[in-house]
Write a structure and sequence with these properties.
Blueprint lengths: L3 H24 L3 H22 L10 H9 L4 H9 L20 H4 L2 H22 L4
Helix pairs in contact: 1-2, 1-6, 2-3, 2-6, 3-4, 4-6
Length: 136
C-alpha cells in the first residue's frame, strides 16, 4: 500500500477536481451525469479522509457506509450521514438505463436533483477539507 498521507492527498485532489467540474455539468444540462459525479466527489473525499486515518482497504462506494466508517474517527460524520445519504441513489441509478423503470437516467434526473446533489457533495467535501487542513 502507498503511504497513507500520499494516498489521501491523491484522493483529495481528485475529489476537489471533480467538485470544480460539477457546475459545468449542471450548466450543460447533464443532470444525470451531475448527480453521479456528485456521488463520486463525496466518495473520493470520504476515502481521502479514511486514508488519512490509516485505512488501507475500503471496499464500498456507499456514502452512507463511508460516513459510518469515518464516524469511527470523528462523530461529525454520523450526523452528516443522514443529510448526504441520498447520494447513494446516484451511483447506479444515474448511469444505467436498466436501473430505472421505463425511463433512462438522462430523462429522469432534473436540475433540482443535480443542484441537491451538488449541495450534498459540497457538504462532504467541506467537512473532509476541514479535517484534512492541518495536514495540508
Amino acid at each position: 500500500m502507498n503511504d497513507p498521507q500520499r494516498e489521501s492527498d491523491r484522493w483529495w485532489r481528485q475529489a476537489s477536481a471533480d467538485l470544480a467540474f460539477l457546475p459545468i455539468v449542471l450548466q450543460a444540462g447533464k443532470y444525470d451525469t451531475c448527480c453521479f459525479l456528485a456521488q463520486q466527489t463525496a466518495e473520493k473525499a470520504l476515502k481521502a479522509y479514511l486514508f488519512s486515518q490509516g485505512e488501507e482497504l475500503i471496499f464500498t462506494h456507499s456514502i452512507f457506509k463511508l460516513c459510518d466508517l469515518a464516524a469511527h474517527y470523528d462523530s461529525f460524520f454520523a450526523e452528516l450521514k443522514d443529510t448526504v445519504k441520498t447520494l447513494d441513489y446516484y451511483y447506479v441509478e444515474a448511469r444505467y438505463p436498466s436501473a430505472l423503470q421505463d425511463v433512462i437516467p438522462a430523462e429522469f434526473y432534473s436540475a433540482r436533483d443535480a443542484e441537491g446533489a451538488i449541495r450534498m457533495a459540497t457538504d462532504v467535501h467541506r467537512a473532509v477539507g476541514q479535517r484534512l487542513a492541518p495536514q495540508g
